């Protein structure tokens, strides 16, 4: 039987923040693998590096002051730490995504849920507005949101 290859492999990830007070080692040697069809839940105390780990994978650590100083983040056979911002933008939101835990960076109450979901579909999948709206309804239905046609509005 052929051994399954991991979809995501994080090896010795170290993400540090360089501040006036010194170096903050927010992530210091994280390792894990995720295989196709698996879900990984990262739990821990507030401030332990969960969000910084996810932001590192997504290439969203603000630099300065943050920087991935060591490690590899392999996704579908390529090391994400070696990609340019343009290359990451093509992957982010399309092939790999994150649900942010901070309420102020989540959905914006000024815009409809449909518009906010459609925005990434138009950007990453080159869909028309109508196609993106239809796909947003389909996605809401898929995750069990009741009355998805009404929710997009």
UniProtKB/TrEMBL annotation:
Taxonomy, superkingdom: Bacteria
Among InterPro entries, the record links this protein to: AAA+_ATPase, ABC_Ni/Peptide_Import, ABC_transporter-like_ATP-bd, P-loop_NTPase
Q: What is its main location?
A: membrane
Q: List the Pfam families hit by this protein, alphabetically.
A: ABC_tran (PF00005)
Membrane topology per the record?
Peripheral membrane protein
According to its UniProt entry, this protein's organism is: Halarsenatibacter silvermanii
* Name this protein carries in UniProt: ABC transporter
Q: Which family does it belong to?
A: Belongs to the ABC transporter superfamily.
């Amino acid at each position: 039987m052929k051994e399954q290859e991991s979809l995501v492999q994080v090896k010795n990830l170290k993400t540090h923040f360089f501040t006036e007070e010194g170096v903050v080692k927010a992530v210091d040697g994280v390792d894990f693998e995720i295989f196709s069809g698996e879900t990984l839940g990262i739990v821990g105390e507030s401030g332990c590096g969960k969000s910084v780990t996810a932001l590192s994978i997504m290439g969203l650590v603000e630099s300065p002051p943050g920087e991935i100083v060591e490690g590899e983040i392999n996704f579908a056979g390529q090391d994400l730490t070696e990609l340019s911002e343009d290359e990451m933008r093509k992957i982010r939101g399309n092939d790999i995504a994150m649900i942010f835990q901070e309420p102020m960076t989540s959905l914006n109450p000024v815009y409809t849920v449909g518009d906010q979901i459609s925005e990434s579909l138009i950007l990453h999948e080159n869909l028309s507005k109508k196609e993106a709206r239809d796909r947003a309804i389909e996605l809401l239905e898929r995750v069990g949101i009741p009355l998805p046609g009404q929710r997009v509005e």
